[in-house]
Structures are given as C-alpha cells and as structure tokens.
Protein 1
Amino acid sequence: MEVRQQRILYIDPARCMGCRACETVCKLENDLPAGPRYTMVTEAETGEGETEKLNFLPVPCQHCGDAPCVRACPTGALHKREDGVVLTDRRKCVGCHECLWACPFGVPQFASDGRMSKCTMCVHRLDEGTLPACAANCPAEAILCDTVENISRILRERYGKTVFCGPFADRLNGEAAR
Amino acid sequence: MKRLSFDPARCSLCGACALACSLSRCGRPEPAESRIRIECAGPDEPLRSAVCAHCEQPACVSACMRGIIEKDEKSGLVTRRWENCFACGACAVYCPVGASSQEPSKKAFTACDLCGGDPLCVAVCPSGALRFEEDAEGSARRRSAYAGRFFGSGGDKAQERPGLPSQADWERIASAVGGRLGVAVDPESLADACSRQRKAWEEEGM
Amino acid sequence: MSETFNDIPWRRQEDLDAYAVRRNVPVWIGGKKVIADRVVKTCCPHNCYDTCGELVYVKDEKVIKIEGDPAHPITKGHLCLKGFANVQKINSPDRVKYPLLRTGERGEGKFRRISWDEAMDWMVDKIQSIQKTYGPEAILEYCYSGNREHMAKAVAGRLWNLMGASKLVGSFCLLSGVAGSVGCVGSQYTMDPQVWADHAQTLFLVGRNCTATNPHIFPFLYRAKERGATIIVVDPYATGVAAKADIHLRPRPGTDGALALGMIHWILAQGLEDKVFIAEKTTGFEELAAYVKEWTPELTERVTTVPKEQIIRTAEILAKTDAMFETGYGQQRYSNGHQTQQALACLAAVCGSFGKPSANYDCISGMAFPGITGFANGAAVSAPKGADIPKTRLVNIAAVARAVHEAQDPPIKGILSYRGGLISQQPDVDYTIEAVKKLDMFVTIEQFMTDDTDYADLVLPACHYLEQYGVHPSYWHNWHQILVPVCQPPYECVPDAEIFAQLGRRLGYEAYFPRETSGLDWCRMLVGEQCDFDAIVSPNGPARNPEKWCPEVPYQTFDTPSGKFEFHSSLLEERGKRFAGHYDPLPVYYEPDESVEATPELAKKYPINIISQHPSFRTHSQYYNLPWIREIEGEARVFLSRKDAEARGIRDGDKVRIFNDRGQLENITARVGIRLKPGVAEMSSGMWVKLGGSVNKLTKLVPAGPRDILAEDGILTEYDPLLDGNTGSYFNTLVEISRMEEQPWK
C-alpha cells in the first residue's frame, strides 16, 4: 500500500484545547497502569505581548511512513503493517531502548517488564471498523485517524470556508488570520 | 531505572564522550578503548550510540558460557565479573546494539557500567545529546521539544547538527574529566584527539 | 445492625439487571476481548457544567469500562479525562472498605475496623448525647458537591428536619454571582448550546476555563467559529479556551465588573445600545446610564489594566453583533463577585443579548437548585407531610469554620460530613482544622482516606456515584438522566441515602424512612410529576427537561417585580433594607477585599494576587490520589509571569515557597511563562493538604456576595440563596513567592 493511502493519526492543533481526555481513554482502552504513556498532551507557549498564546499538541505514535524506530530495532520486534500501523512484537523485544533514542517524538514507552510498548493506533478497533479510542472520544474532535488524503479534505472543509486558521495561520497570515 | 539516553539530532559528533570514557579507563584519549561509540551506518543514516543498554532480555547474559554476566533484578543493571572472562567473544557477537568492548590490557570483554550511577560521558557531553534519565523523563522531554518545534516557540532547533565544542567547552570537559580522575587534563590535547577522531569518521563517511 | 446489607431493597440483582441497555457485550480491554455482562446508561453527577451521558460496562459486578453515551445530544459520546479515570477510582484498592473508628489523636490517622452495627450505635449514642446536653441545633451536616446528585441530600435533609438540627445553606461556589444576576433578571435559565452554535455572531466567555470544567462546549464553539463567529474570552489566566479566542482580555483579578462598566460607558457614549430592547423590556436604564458616566475607557484601563483599545474594540463587537454571553464562576469568586455579575448582566442587556437564539445570557441555570426553582421538588422529600418540623437556625457553608468557632447557645458540637472536602476546600485550612478539633463528633462518609478522614472520629465507607441512585440536572444544558447503580457496591460500602435512612430509623423516625423505599423511589419523589420519570431511567434517556422550566430560547419575559430586566434592581434594594452588606441596586464597583488597590499596605508585603483555577485533572479535591491523574498532572505547580519570576531570581522549574500571614506552602514547582500577567500567580485548587499542599492554606475566609454573613458569624435565621450570596472569595488573596534556598539536584 502506498504511504499516502495508509492510515495516520493526525492532530488538529487548532482544535486541541488541552483537556487530556485522550490520555486516560487510552489508559483504559489499553489497560495501562501509570508508567507507559501511549499519548501525552504537550504544551508550548508562543508569541510575545499581544500575540502570546498557549498551544496544545497530543503526541501519540505518528506511525511514520519510513519509521526510524523500525529501522533502529535490532531484533525485528518493530514492524509496519500493510495499512501503515507500526506495531511491536513484544516477544521479540529485548528492551534495548534503541527505538526510543531513534524516535524524534519520544513515543516508545517501557512497561514494568522492561519491554517496549507504544500506541497501536488501537488496531483491535480499526480491524473492527471503529476509530482509535482517543479519536473516537476527543471532545474537541481534534484527533483524526484516516488516510493523508482524507484528512487533508476534512481540514480543508473545516477551515477552507472562513479564513485559513490552521495550525500555522499565525505564521503564514500574521494578524490577518486572527 | 535511569539510562544513558542518546538524542541523535543533538549530537555534534565531537567525540568527547568516547574520549572521556577511554581516559577514565586507560589514561589515554583513545576512542578505541571507550565503552561508548557513536556510530553511523552510512551517509544518510541516523547516528546511533553503541553502548550497553542494560537490556531487559540481555542476549549477552544468555550467551555467556561462564555465567559471569548477570541481570541484576533490583537495580536493572547488567553486571559483569570480567576478571573471570576468557574472552570467547560471544557477548559481543550477540549484543543487539554492538556494545561490548575489550578491556584494555586484559583478555576480557566488558561493557558500560554507568560509572556507578554518574556517567562521565553525560557530564562532558557539550550539546546535551547524552543524558542520564528515566525513560519517562526522556520521552516527555522529546515530546515537548517536538511541540516546541511544531509551534515555532523555538527552544529546540534540532534540525541541523549542532556545532563542535568551543574552546570554553573543551576547558569544561577537561576539568570534568580531570576532576573525576584526579589528574590534570590538557584541553588542547583533547581537542586534538577529537579532530583526529573526526577525520577518521569522515573517511568512514559519517 | 439489625438490617443486613443483602436485604436492602435496591440491591436486588433483578433491579440492577433491568437497567441493562445491552447484555453480553464484547468489549476490548488491553487488546483482549472481554464479554461484559451488561451495559448501563447513567450520567456523571460531578460539579461540572457538562453532566455527561455515560455507558458503563459491568462484568462480575465490577465496572470494567466507561464510554460516553453517543445518544446524549450535548456530550455526544465524549468524556473528559476524569470520566475514564472513574474505572481506576471505583476499583481502587485504596478505597475505604469498612467503617473505621478513630483510635489515635485527631490528625494522626489511626483507626480500627468496626462493624456497621457498632458504627450506627456509636453515631446514635453521640448524636443523642449531644442533643441532650446542647440541644438538637448543636448537630450540623456538611455536604457539598463531591457527588452533586440531589436525592441523598434531600433524604438527609428529611432527617435533619425531623431532628431539628442546624441546617446548612448556601454554596461557596457561585451564589454571589447568582445574587447579582437574579437581582436583574429574576429566575435564571440557560440556553442549550445547540441553539446558539448555529446563530451567534460573537461568543463572550467570562471567567470560564472551559478546557477543565466544560470541555463539551468546544464542538459548539468551533461550529460557531468556523461559521465566522468571534470568540472573546475574559480571564486573567491564559486558559485553553483563551488560546482559541480571537480576543483575550486579561483584567487584574477581581476587576471584571469594572471592565463591564467601562464597556457599557463606551456603548452608551457611542449610542450603540439596543434602544428597542431597553425601551420595551427594561427598567432603571437612566440610573445606570448616570452611574457609568464616570467609567471612561481611561479609568477602566487604570482599574483593570486592560488596554483601552481592547476595551473599546470588544465593547463595539458586543454591541454591533449578536453576542452570546456565557459567564462562568471565576469572575465572581471575589468579595465583589455579585457586583461583577450584575455589571455583566447589565452589559448583556445594554447589548440586547436577551431572549434571542443568537444572543442570550447564560449565568447558571435555576435548574441547579431543586426545591428552589425548576422541576425537582426538594421539599417533597426533605419536608414530609404531617411531620412536625421545627424552625432552626441556618449555617452558611461559606463560613462553616467561623460558625463552629463562634456559635453559642448552642455551640456546634457534631458535624456529619459527606460529599465534601471540608479541610482542603474551605478557605483558610488552619482555621478550619482548629474548628474541626473543637467538635465532639466529626463523622465523614468518604471513598478514600482524605484530609478530612484524618481528623474524623468515625469514617464510613461511601459508595462511588456509579453504585447509587441520583438526580442531577445539569446547570448548563437542559437534558436529564437519572443515575442508577450499575453494580453492587464493593466491601461494606453503603449508598449515602441508605446511611441516612438507617440512621433515621435508629433515631426513632421509622415512619419517615420506610425500609421498602428504594433509592429509585426517593428519586421519583424528588422529580415529582413534572416529567415522565421512566423516560429518564436506564435503558431510557436522556430526555429534555420540561419546556415550562427550561424554555428553548429563554428570557422572553423576566419574572422580576416589574416583569422587566432591572438595571436598578428592586429585589436587591428591598433585601438591602433588611440585611447588612453590599445590597446596591446598581452594579456600583468596589475593590475586592484584598487587592493591590484595596490594601496597598498589605500589597507592599504581599504583592502577588494568587488565583486558583479548577484544573481538568480533578473535580475539586477528587481524583487527586489516582495514579493515572497524578502521572498526568505531575508535581504541585505555581504559574507566574516572567517579570515576577525574574525579580525574585526564580527560574522555570525551581522550587518555591508561597506565603502570607495565613500560611505557607513549600517546595512548589514554579512554572514561568506567558500564562499570567505580572502581579498575578496561579496555583490550582483541590490539592490535598497531606499530598502536596492546598492553596487554601493561603486563602481568607471572606464570603463574597451582597449579604455580610460574617457580621452574623455565618449563623442565620433567614436566608435567600438567590439574593444573599455567598461564595468563598478564593481569588482575592495576596501572597509573596520566594525561591527555596535548597533546590533538588538537577
């Protein structure tokens, strides 16, 4: 399958308002204790004076097309499924942490048994035709799970009709976008 | 447990980590004697650190026929009684990250012991590429750094490889190494060793 | 006890099974498929705007999963982080499992397990001996919103009424705003967000951190915004919703009322007011117009620190467009809170923002107060027909500690506390602890060993809200669902209503607490005839509240004495003739009790105004002890501006000390950034004193609102919750912050 047809998890940062419901719905869905965080809402402060702004970005696994973690894993425990989901075969993991050093997003987590576990894009739900738990629950509808093409269409529908107020609006349009 | 965390995007390839490690082990700035190496498989490949990861399922423990490598359940460390090693090389061969190194002047293989909890390589790393931290800390820091880049709030501009250490950096590194070893270390010689190292790496295509 | 747990009526398994929406439902838990015995529909009764519809999966009488109910028209199948954490909470090994009797000193936290029988006997003995020595009014309940459901409170109310105990009245959350608002509009209503989302041209949100307390407003805000609506947020703190706003006004804490007056001045000066609305539907406009003459943009800027250009721009947008006013609670948690809300209501009226689908005014719905307004009839439960109910003194919840310290004839000697954190949530922690220590009896009904239980004589194991019945109308939207128990309670936990019913029977009121009355029967009695009860009990529901109480587009008329919106409030004026306090018929601005302007001498010593928002991690002090929540929230933090931090040598991540004359907090992590303007700091409320430090160690017991209840030591003979206040004025608190000398190694 071509990368553009594969599923990704996309965050619409113009909508995420930092409620962190995705963090606990993920814990519940995946039966995780405190420790491994498959997703984490990060905050970034931008601007000065009048343009000061708080931004939120949940960081689940990006399920990259050419995933650095898959490349870095020395035991073949990480692999990419045909539909794009990056999965871990925990039986093969030796807990060497190479994936964490390789991942620029800091996604790989380590459970109490020391082996890597991470966001699976809720494959068990995907395979039954439902969305990942975080995307299905997001109160702000900020988490999208679809192909790149479809997500692009959804975002153009959201923002195309008014001024462009996507995530980079401040930088692209300056004050005009606000 | 705290581990050596390596961020390839922040590494300037200065080689200070390997120099410091080798100095602490054989008294000479000789990267071949170091227990940590920065590696690269090819020009477009990412950097990686070859250093004992203290794996949860350590291949070296299974491979060692003398049973002198052990995974300490309490501390999480992989420990070696290398005085009893007869250098069969199995641990080095089967190590998934290529971490084992030969003990200087001994016929034995060893690996990083995290300097007993205060790794010298982390103390000298001038760009913050090497850190000694919990997994959760490292993960959260990377995630936040990504958000910072995403929204352009600066902070972490990790797209370009950072520059090499300055003169002041080398003085700081030399005093850190010297302080740990209890001897005076000349910053110039460290910088020289570093540039020799870089030349060798460039020839290898890193 | 003579009654065993198993034959309490509501625990019949067939009753629980009858609530199943579906049975034998496959559900994924941690990548494994599990067959849940049943799925039950209920709603969340926390003190939150949203009152989400929930679907709860139960297996072997344990809650294994919670989802949002997709059939709920407002919350649409989405829950917040706390909603899911309920699975961890209800199954927590740390729950209070059995009745515990104190063996050590108060505060030591030493207990021994006793049986329910012994616990009941102990309580009956204590209550009767206090009644005998001091009289029935020496007993007081303490109850707030841990489970904001009303049924058990009404059942408890029946017991207090029969006993003639002192009655707890008021709310330390919002009533000062309600007083200001009711004074102008009469009965209050809210309009469903579905209505304004498609019509409003401007959204005006004041003192409302929607990310934490109202996340389900966001789809509606975005629908409006993507249609082109302007979002304006007024909040000293940079909240999640402020981050999505087109304009964010950041007034000095406690000056929102001045801001509104400044905007009214500008609107009138430019002739932009809604002249038709003012002429037809209001009274007292001339008095207001005369008063706001002094509130020039220059004066407003000086008082609020908001640049006058922003004030003018916002005022013009509000006046020229159809503006929806969504006002929250933050702006009225100051000693001048009622005035602030009154000024905001007047601003809405000047803009004509009443009675239209595109432009209306939301403060807090009257639906939140059963027995006062709305369809629920609290008196039907709490004041049974034929009973001899003595008139007793009233104790205001915003001054409970003061009442315990000061009450005479009789003194308050016994408190039965449930659904509320007395120590961590009341202002001035140390003063509250001193009050608790004076009691002869302090009983808490709790799910966990909290700050309160440490000082309790008797701790009773409480049920989680999913284990009991309840009635909880939302105070934001107009949809209703009855809470039903989804599973059997674990250990020896007993539903609150059952505890009071059994206590009542043991105190000799068998006739008023029949054993066969189930929680559902109490709920039916509370809801009354106004709506179809069966339509709101799982598997049915939710249903819309009766139109009579919750009109689709409210404020077509006003039920003030004049039948119009009153800029010059006759209700407040009349009330002011009878009670001391700040009953001004006009929204005349005055400074909060403690601020850099009001108390300049104090501000030299303590120059930073600390506010305490309600974070998304908790509802008040609940959930703070759960591992999932602690992991997300991290250590106790205080946010402060770069300028204030620099002046004190504080860097981001440093440990700091926050202090004033009332108390201090140590080892709090400083977060330095843009969230606050200089002179303001923020530390979220609800942290436990014993787990990191409650911000209420610093706050002051000065209830906000028109009536000066401290003049009466919080002990009242008459009280009108809609016109008297009182809110805890948590946010007018001045502190100083300094860097700790010892910093942890980094």
Note: The interface with chain B takes residues 13, 35, 37, 40, 42-46, 55, 57, 59, 68, 71-72, 74-75, 93-98, 100-110, 113-115, 167, 171 of chain A (CB under 8 Å).
Protein 2
Amino acid sequence: MSKYMVNLKINNIPVTVEEGTTILEAARKLNISIPTLCYHEDLSVAGNCRVCLVEVAGAKNLAASCAAPVSEGMEVNTNSKNVRTSRRHVVELLLSEHNADCTKCFKNGHCELQDLASEYRIGDHVFIDLVKPQDKVVDISSPSIQKDDSKCIRCQRCVRTCSELQSVSALAVCYKGDHQRISTFLSKPLHEVVCTNCGQCVNRCPTGALTERTYIEEVWDAINDPTKHVVVETAPAVRVALGEDLGIETGTRVTGKMVSALRHVGFDSVLDTDFTADLTILEEGNELLRRLKKALVEKDETVRLPMFTSCSPGWIKFIEHTYSDFLPHLSTCKSPQQMFGALAKTYYAQKKNINAKNMVVVSIMPCTAKKFESGRPEMRDSGYQDVDYVLTTRELAMMIKQAGIDFAKMEDTAYDSIMGDSTGAGVIFGNTGGVMEAALRTAYEVVTGREVPFANLNIVPVRGMEGVKEAKVMIKDVLPEWSFLEGVELSVAIAHGLANANKVVQAVRDGKASYHFIEIMGCPGGCIGGGGQPIPTNPEIRQKRADAIYAEDEGLPKRKSHDNPEVLHLYKEFLGEPLGHKSHDLLHTHYKARKRY
Amino acid sequence: MSRTENLVSELVEKHGRSRNSLMPILQGIVQEERFLSEEAMIEIARELNLSTADVFGTASFYTFLDTVPRGKNIIRVCKTISCHMKGKDEVIEALEALLKIKVGETTHDRNFTLLTANCLGWCHKGPVMLINDEVYPELTPHKACEILEAYMKAQ
C-alpha cells in the first residue's frame, strides 16, 4: 500500500513527503539546514533542546521541527526573525548552564554547542552563569570514558543511546528542574556501575560532557624516551575512518597513508592488529571445531554451544554483568588487540632481541572499551601489561595533527614485519559479520579441503546492517578426520549493538533459537561504528566505512586467515599448533561474573 | 531473605512486574521504611527487569520518594511564598529549637526529620506543615510546637 503523500512549503519552496515525516526531515530533503542538538538519527525523538525551532504559519508557538510532523498545506519558515531570535536565546540559555571552558576542553573544535555559538555569533553572556561548582568535579574513575557534568546540556542523547542501542541503561535522567542531572545509579562513579565502556554515548554527546579518557601525552612521552622501543598496532576499522578526522572524504581507505604517518609520529615499528585477527581465526576456528567434536562425537555435556565470539570488550563486559551464566559459552580466545600485546612482548621481543621491559605497546582502536580491556588483570600473560596504551581513532588523528603531518600528502607505505602481514579475512573483522565470514572461510576449508561455496569468497548472507542476521552452511564431502561433521548444517547468527546481542542471548537462553556459533559486536555496524571512531556517526557514514572494509578485503592478494604467511611462520617457530600449550598460555583467557545491579 | 527483600517481593506480588508498577512499589517502600535504600532499589530493579539507574532516576525525580535515610516521622514545612509571608520562618525556627536539629536533619533517636516542601496547596490557610500524611494549617510557632510535642509524647 502506498503511503499518503503530504504537500507543504518550506521557505516558500514546495515539497512533497510521506505522511509522518517531520518538518526537519522534509527540510533536509530540500537541503535546508536546521540546527539540532538532542536529535540524532540513530535515536528516538526527544524534542527537549529546542534549537530546531521553526515558524509554522497560523500556529501560535514555534514548533520543534524534529518532533513536529508535516501536514497538508503547511507553510514553514525556518529563517524568520522570530526563529533566529528564539534559537539564539535557546543557545544562550544552554550556555548559561554550560561550563564554556572551550579552550581547555577535549572537544574544542569538535563541539556541536560551540559550533552553534559560533553560527549565532553569541557574544556577551546575557543570562547569568548557572554552572554549579559541584558539577565541575569530573568522573575519571573509568579508564575508558570520562564524564563532566558541567559540560552537560541534558539533551539525553547518551541516555537514549545506552537504553535504545545498548539495552544497558547505565545512565538515566535523575532529579528534576535545575537539579536535573544525567546520572548513574546513586551517582556512583562510572567504573562501579554496569557501563560496558562501549563509548556509544561518547560518539553521540554533542558537547564535552562525555569523552574518552585520553592517553596522548603518555604515548608522546614513550615515543620521546630513547630507552623505550615503542610498537604500534592498528585495528582493522581505523584505516577506513581515520581520514574523516583529517579532512578526507568519508569511506576513503587510508591504510598506506596511516602507516607512513605513524612512522613520522615516531613509532619504532608499525604493525597490524589484522595479523592477530588472522591468528584469532585459527585459534577460534579450531576451538569451535573442537567444541563441535566434543559435543557431537564424545557427547561431552560440559561443552557449551553455541560458542560466542570474544573480540568485542564492550560485549564481554556486558555478558559479565548481564548473563554471567553464559560465560562458558564465550570463546576463550583473547581479542586480537590482546593477542597482539601478549605476542609483542614475547615472540616479537625475542626475535628482535629486545628486553620486553623496555617495550611499550600502543594500540590504535576504533573503541573506548579497549582502554578498559588493556588494563584487565587477565591481560598480563607476557609478564608485563601486554598492551600499555590504547588510543582511539580520534586521538590518533589529533597526534597526527600535533606532529604537523600533512596527512593527505602522505605516500602509501606498507606495515613492518614481523606481525604486520594480514589477509582480507583479518580486515573484515571491522564489520559486523566479518569475524563470522573470516571464520567460515577458514573452518570450511579445514573441514572439507575446499573453499567456501560462495562466489569470490564473499559470504553475503552474513553481511549487512540488519540487527540480527542468521545463516546456515551445509557441510558435505568432508575430509576423513572430520567425518562426524558430514551432512551437518552449521547454523550461525550475528548481532551488533548490545540491544541486538541481548535479543539473541535471550532467545538462546529461552530455547527459542539454536545455533552453533554466534558473532557479537558491541557497537552498531561492528567496529566501524565503534565508540572511538570519528564523530559524527549515522547509518550512512557506517555504511560507507563498511563498504570500504569490503573493498580493502577484495584488494588484498590473500583473503583467508590460514594463508597468512607470518601467522604460519609464528606457529612453526613459536606457538607450535593452534590451541597448543603456548597458545593456551598467551592467547586464551577466562572472564568473571560481575554484579548486574 | 532480608526484611527489605521480603517487602519488595510482597509489593511486586501486589502490583505486578510491569514498568507501571514502579511508582506504587516505590511508594510502598517509602511508606514502610521511610526511604529507598540502595538495597531496596537494587531489588526493585531485579524484580522489574529495569536498570538500577532507571529506578534511581524515577525515585530522585519525586521529592516524597527519599533516597537518603529519614526519621520515623517526617515534618515538611511549606516554604512557598504565601506561607513565607505568613511566618513560616518563625515556625521553622521554633521547630528547630524544639527538636535540636536544622532543616534537612534527623534527630538522634531517628524519630523526626525536619524538611521544607514546595507549595502544599494550602495557601489560604498558611503557614502549613505536613507531618507524615497529616496537614496542620494556620500555624503559629507555639501551635506548631504543641502539635509536635503530642507526636513526641506518642513515641
């Protein structure tokens, strides 16, 4: 059934849109820009900030265009004197409750409120400063995220993000009137509550109220210390988003430029997390096959299926809090970041004849939760903290600017060896469905001796932005040692965003769904939509990054993890075999139950 | 099960587990325990499958849903403009002297908490105070103390 169409005029320009469209959406169709703060494409409409006010002919009051639906014959003016004055007052009122310490703020230059103050040329403060001194106490308890209430304009994007996208609700609107605050349970510090450190709130905070904890200075100090050998690893999703913060078009792959820039910044060795992503596939793929064998052949009832992936630290903390009875379902594999750290300070140190004590491992991640992960007590298997500092994509962009590098003019160079080689399977870890696809490319071939039966190795059913995806792969004509898998239809599921993860776990727990293997990423779109990625984010931006990841995969000569020559070499020289003794010590771990409430 | 856990479970039994039940459950706890303890809010979140921050967000919105410990009897003197003009300051001073506490505090024996409240809707008969659910209009400092002494005797 076709939808009822509505005709209206915005600034005298006629436009026809579907019934139910808001004035804001209709205006955007005409490329008329209306400022917004509480509105976000990924979230429900709140209509509380009032900067999107417009004039509707015949209406007594100005309307909030993000919340007002269009109607037939409506005449909207987005640029009358009344609109401009009212918007200016709204911005001034917000500023009166905002700690406008702009030059000291981490978000200086990246703040939506600052942009509006600039656009409306806000000069003298006409309203008195109402920022409460107690709100200036910044919560830095979390290693991932810091919360500064004095910068908060109570738009509630973070609250909606945490509940709608992540089903965590670590933050809620508390108290009322001029006492209203966005708060955790009983105003506890962030590290004491159910926050998963995913950083999706940071991605959507229009001001500097929620930002990542930054470690840029610590990294500069390490680089400048001649006694330290500083190694950097870059996650798959960074290379398709970093350009956005450095003036390059969204969706552009900047892998080679990034590698050059990292050398100019001063890292001693520029290596790739994709290498350990490939390694993860060999460990995790074999773990899955071992679990299947134990369950199907040995009828071992202690083996838990489905197996869940364990790459996403936001997801790990979520399951620790919410479904601790499901912890045995998690793959014991560490995330690629942590595998990298553990190997850097053992294998790499040995090969390069460096004392691990003098090594500093820095990882560049699209993620804020990785900052928490690197500090976990479980992540010290090299004898030291395996990964010393984690920087977000955004922080790396800042460092590149500080170093005076003209990023666009950087030439493309390749990663260093050892631990710098990767395949397309490692790259696609950045997308939702990518770990699953990489795992299937390898596991299917291990079991049958043949490539996965999908054109050009592209396992299309596990791709795309649908919240929960399912796929089935028939396993036939297996190699003799895998005969127990003959005729088994491997059933897999993929979820991204913790609200979707929640649905899948609930379905499995209630017995409504049955799978062998489930990939879960904590952030919408997977790592390309991670909490450490350039701001802003929306479905269109995430799609462009995802497309870039698949293009990067297709452009690589090797696209299956088990073809990575450096990984094969690592097994031969150092680890022995997948799931072997050394792997067990360095690459696998267990997690613990945490309080849900 | 602790006393609070029992109470929450009784209230959940009575009002149900939907989000709509949150308010009557919170009110039920305050009725019995005079305030919402951390334990009570955690239990409610668990029973209703809400986040604790959500429960705290709702509780902290309402002045009458306290999240800090209160005395057995709560005195709330209206502080809004009509009562102010009719002498609520003197009433408060007299009550503070009698109870030996300041506004916002609770007596050592935990029998009384003295608070102020926004408009109680008795502007025509101010100044007014509320002791628990009982309204006392047209107060003078003397009258307020007499009323309170009766409560003190009853303890």
Note: The longest strand of chain B covers residues 73-78.
